Amino acid sequence: NPPYLAENDSHLESLKYEPIEAMVSGKDGLDDIREIIQNAPKYLNQGGYLLLEHSDRHQKEIVELLKHSFVNILTYQDLNGLDRAILAQYL
């Protein structure tokens, strides 16, 4: 899973012993996910799948990013019922 927390995310205080670069991905937490989505077509065959773990706050933004090159976009919830992963098929 890529880093997906925003620079000012409230969860960072409880993760102070984790390497910051493993947790934070730019101001909004989506820099690494944007890069993965942008570059995924270089590595996926047509019909291949991309699975992303993400913050429960990012589901809508990630779906919008995926709509340009992916179909069959499915969201999965964690045990608390929060949107935490997305599976999408490359066109």
TrEMBL record:
InterPro entries: N5-glutamine_MTase, SAM-dependent_MTases_sf. One of its GO terms (molecular function) is protein-glutamine N-methyltransferase activity. PANTHER family: HEMK METHYLTRANSFERASE, MTRF1L RELEASE FACTOR GLUTAMINE METHYLTRANSFERASE. This is Release factor glutamine methyltransferase N-terminal domain-containing protein. It comes from marine metagenome.
